[in-house]
Design brief:
This protein has eight helices and seven strands. The chain is an alpha/beta fold. The model has no long low-confidence stretch (mean pLDDT 95). It has a seven-stranded parallel β-sheet, sandwiched between helices. It has a single domain, classed as NAD(P)-binding Rossmann-like Domain (Rossmann fold). Bound molecules: NADP nicotinamide-adenine-dinucleotide phosphate (NAP). NADP nicotinamide-adenine-dinucleotide phosphate binds next to helix 1.
Length: 251
C-alpha cells in the first residue's frame, strides 16, 4: 500500500455508516473516492472543506460498473486504488411469504454481486506487485438467523461465505475481510426510543456507534496479515437470547 496517502473507494459514502467510515479513513490519512447513487449534503460539505474526497455518482446495481470503473480510476489517479469498503446496501422488509424474484435479485445485486464483481475486476486490473484490501459490511444477522428481511438476509449470507473464498482466490494481491455490524443506527422506520430499547437488550448494553464500525474497518485495512475474516462488532447482539429481547422489551 501507498504509506503516504492510500486511496480507498467507499460505497454508500453519502450517509450513515458509509459516511462515518469515510470520516474515520480521512482522519487516518486516507484519500477517499466516495461512491454514491445520489449526492448528500454532508458529503458535499466534507469535500468542500478541502479534505481529499472525490465524489463519484454511480449506481452499483449496473453489472458493468466495476469492470469499467477500476481502469478509469487507475488512469485518473495514476494508480489503482488500494482499498474498497462496501457499505452500500439495499435493506427492504420482506418474508418468505411476500418475497419475489425481483426482491431477491435486487438485494443480491447490490449487497453481494457488486462486491464480488468489484474484487474480480480489481484483480484483473492489478499489476503483479499490486497489493490491496477490501472490506464488506455484512450483518450480525448472518450469525443469529431470524426469518425477517428474507431477501436481504439471503444476500448477506452469500456475502459472508464469499469472504474466505475470495481471500483464498485473490491472495496475495488482495486481502478480503468483512465487518458484521449489529444494530448501530435506527433502521427500517425504527423510532429513536425503539432503537435504544433494542440496543439496550444487547449483552454489552447500548451505545454501539458508527465510529465503532469505522474503527473495525480501519483496523482490517491496516492489518496487513489478516485475510478471509469476518469481525462482528455488535455489542454481543449475535449472542442475544430470545429471553434477553423479551425481558427488555417495552411493556
Ligand atoms: N445501520 C446498521 O445498524 C447496520 C446493521 C447491520 C448491518 N449494516 C450494514 O452496514 C452497511 C451500512 O449500513 P447503513 O445503515 O449505513 O446502510 P443503508 O443506509 O441501508 O445504505 C447505505 C447506502 O447504500 C447506498 N445504495 C443503495 N443502493 C445503491 C446502488 N444501487 N448504488 C449505489 N449506492 C447504493 C445508498 O446510497 P444513496 O443514498 O446514494 O441511494 C445508501 O446511502 C450495510 O451494508 C448494512 O447492511 C448496518
Amino acid at each position: 500500500m501507498n504509506a503516504q496517502h492510500p486511496l480507498a473507494v467507499v460505497t454508500g459514502a453519502g450517509k450513515r455508516l458509509g459516511l462515518a467510515i469515510t470520516r474515520t479513513l480521512l482522519e487516518n490519512n486516507w484519500e477517499i473516492l466516495a461512491l454514491v447513487r445520489q449526492p448528500s449534503t454532508a458529503l458535499d460539505a466534507l469535500a468542500a472543506s478541502g479534505r481529499p474526497v472525490h465524489i463519484i455518482e454511480q449506481d452499483i446495481a449496473d453489472p458493468a460498473v466495476w469492470f469499467d470503473l477500476w481502469p478509469r480510476l487507475r488512469e485518473r489517479f495514476g494508480r489503482l486504488p488500494e482499498a474498497l469498503v462496501h457499505a452500500a446496501s439495499l435493506f427492504e422488509h420482506d418474508t418468505a411469504d411476500t418475497s419475489s424474484w425481483a426482491a431477491i435479485e435486487a438485494h443480491r445485486r447490490i449487497n453481494y454481486d457488486s462486491f464480488v464483481a468489484a474484487a474480480s475486476a480489481w484483480m484483473q486490473c492489478a499489476d503483479t506487485m499490486q497489493r490491496g484490501a477490501f472490506v464488506a459490511l455484512v450483518d450480525q444477522k448472518v450469525q443469529r438467523l431470524n426469518p425477517d428481511h428474507y431477501a436481504y438476509t439471503l444476500s448477506k449470507l452469500n456475502l459472508a461465505v464469499s469472504i474466505p473464498f475470495l481471500a483464498q482466490a485473490l491472495a496475495p494481491k488482495l486481502r478480503v475481510n468483512g465487518v458484521a455490524p449489529g444494530l448501530t443506527l435506527p433502521s427500517g422506520g425504527q423510532t429513536e426510543a425503539g432503537f435504544h430499547t433494542a440496543q439496550s437488550a444487547f449483552p454489552l448494553g447500548a451505545g454501539l456507534a458508527p465510529t465503532d464500525i469505522a474503527d473495525a474497518v480501519l483496523f482490517l485495512l491496516q492489518q496487513r496479515w489478516i485475510t478471509g475474516q469476518l469481525i462482528t462488532v455488535d455489542g454481543g447482539q449475535h449472542l442475544q437470547s430470545d429471553c434477553d429481547v423479551l425481558l427488555r422489551a417495552p411493556s
